[in-house]
Design a protein that fits this description.
With about 150 residues, the protein is α+β, with helices and mostly antiparallel strands. The protein contains 5 helices and 5 strands, in the order αββαααββαβ. Strand 1 and strand 2 form a beta hairpin. Helix 3 crosses helix 4. The model has no long low-confidence stretch (mean pLDDT about 95).
Length: about 150
Amino acid sequence: MARYPTNGLSLEQASTIIAAARAKGRELNLLPLTVVVLDAGGQVKASQREDGASLLRPEIALGKAYGALALGLGGRELARRAQAMQGFMNALSDIAGGRAVPVPGGVLVCDAAGTILGAVGISGDASAQDEVCAVAGIEAAGLRPDTGDA
């Protein structure tokens, strides 16, 4: 049997994260969501945009996940740093080509030991609600979310 690198997350784990995150969104009656899962190398592992999600939701979801992964910090901590260190966050945005979105809804995906395996970004509803869905998806895959809060 051939073995292939997953670069952190398998497609099966990414698919579980998306399905569970979307299910949580439907349970909470949220606006249509877009979910993006990045592997540890920052590449899109899986992505889904629900019917009715507005035009830029994929880019926003990607930016939430990318920003978290780029600094190894959950979106809540990135939001705090954006308030405290605007110059740094502006520079980060420039360096990242505008792809870093420092708000809740970007959640690191970790294993039990705390190793970062990737990140999830969700956009569609209020950022705090997007984050709730990301956490539900990550936990459904048997992994540990890091939102940037203890």
